[in-house]
Design brief:
- The chain is an alpha+beta fold and 383 residues long.
- The chain is built from twelve helices and nine strands.
- A five-stranded antiparallel sheet has the order 1-2-3-5-4.
Length: 383
Amino acid sequence: MHALKSFISSKLSHISKDNDKDKDEGESSSTAIATNAALANVQSTERVKTFLAEAKDEFQVKYDKPNQNTAKLEDFECIRTIGKGSFGRVMLVKHVSNGNFYAMKILEKQKVLNYRQIEHTLHEKRILQAISFPFIVNLDYHFKDNTYLYMVLQFIPGGTMFSHLREVGRFSEQHARFYAAQIVLTLEYLHYLGIIYRGLKPEDLLIDADGYLKVTDFGFAKKITGQTWTLCGMPEYLAPEMILSKGYNKAADWWALGILVYEMSAGYPPFYADQPIQIYEKIVSGKIRFPSHFSSDLKDLLRNLLRLDAKKRYGNLENGVDDIQTHQWFSATDWNAIYQREVEAPFVPKIKEPGDTSNFNEYEEEPLCIATTDKLGKDFEEF
């Protein structure tokens, strides 16, 4: 990852500066350290380049030739509903052959059509089946029948960040930084592939058994080459250029990162109101109030992420994600260790057993009613 490379480069820079200070204490020793660090930097940079190139090639092959119907409903035992949305639900299921637990996202075709979400749904499936990253949930199977669309995802038992954030009120900056680093790496990966996410919010960030994040719900994700204009996403997380219908690019995701970091650290988003229109007015005003407990480094990072002018926003400048990754608020972050999942998580959810759903809310169960004919087959032919 470029963020990993920039982190290593910044560490090398720090080593060089320290060597200048310590020349009197042993110039030869400092030179050896710098030489070793430089060698490690070159090797790591090459690994990063190789990873990105291979990841992009692999993504493009799968994205260009998406497969269909990799399973069927009879392959799974439906256990219980663990989430509900406007036009579907998510159920815990167990594969009857391998015994593994999964989260099955079930979307009703007619409701997807009614909500005008066909394009978004097709984008979600096509992107999910083509990407692979440590902090993104895996799409293991997908299929459809006369009534429903099914996406069988990796089951993440720890519940949502949203529920845990509401339980504790707010996260410490160290806790928030741990999660934020994973989102930075994830957005960098997606952006490198040409994908804008547009769905960042605590409700769609799951916590796995080790305390690490898994980004889910790619309903608003889209592969773009320049700008796009669709207004979509959670009102509190929309970038000002999205609201003003100016056309926007991947910089909108970095704005959303700023909102997320603020909400994790404060317990509430910087712009909130009873009605969406009131939220939009606050967002485009650009006026932000910081809680007194925010550190100066955190406030500085947020000011640069929450720039009204996308051209001046961190993540969208000449240095790209480097401006975020090398910011003082992230100075203690070992980006490579985060990517390798080697950092001890500040919170590890209690998981009793495989398939434990105690970290999810309970919902009223409804039977699946599958029609004998498919009236919307052409609309979802690409799924």
